[in-house]
Design goal:
Length: about 170
């Protein structure tokens, strides 16, 4: 992007995020925004070396199998179903949540999903909860740093919520 400011207006135009040069002259206030983080650029060589070591295809296969196993485990434990057939899954899956008496049995909307997501967050679980076609779903995902025990924690937390148990 380009910002051109006539000299007569430069005294009242400020950058949204200031640079270390703010206050010296007009352009210096915009050169290096204070919240810019260049560590990703500095780490790029190591990141590429890591992926060369691990391999993209083995990582993809691991993530796909992990999310499929986790989604099926959750659906079995909750007595629900997957949002889409397993053959269409990649590293993400939708799993229907079980009925939760505290929410009633109405057609679920955003506010219900938000309430469940916040209850899980209070248990230190970060997972999106979505209301789709009147049903509640969790959207789980997998990456190479995930492991099956993390999904077991989610399973147990949802079962506790279903039973009306308060947050731990």
């Amino acid at each position: 992007a380009l910002l051109h400011v006539q000299p007569e207006h430069q005294d009242w135009i400020d950058p949204l995020v200031i640079s270390h040069g703010y206050g010296s002259d007009f352009p210096s206030g915009f050169y290096w925004p204070g919240l810019a983080d260049f560590s990703s650029w500095l780490a790029l060589d190591e990141a590429l070396a890591f992926w060369d070591l691990v391999g993209l295809e083995p990582a993809r296969i691991y993530c796909n199998y992990l999310v499929t196993d986790a989604a099926e485990m959750l659906a079995d434990a909750w007595g629900t179903r997957l949002g889409i057939p397993t053959e269409l899954l990649g590293p993400m899956a939708l799993v229907e949540l079980p009925a939760m008496p505290a929410l009633g049995n109405e057609r679920f909307v955003y506010e219900h999903a938000e309430a469940v997501q916040n209850a899980l967050f209070r248990r230190r679980i970060e997972v999106p909860v979505k209301a789709l076609s009147g049903q509640l779903y969790v959207r789980i995902s997998a990456h190479i740093y995930n492991h099956s025990e993390e999904y077991e924690v989610l399973r147990d937390a949802v079962l506790d919520l279903k039973k009306g148990r308060s947050e731990e």
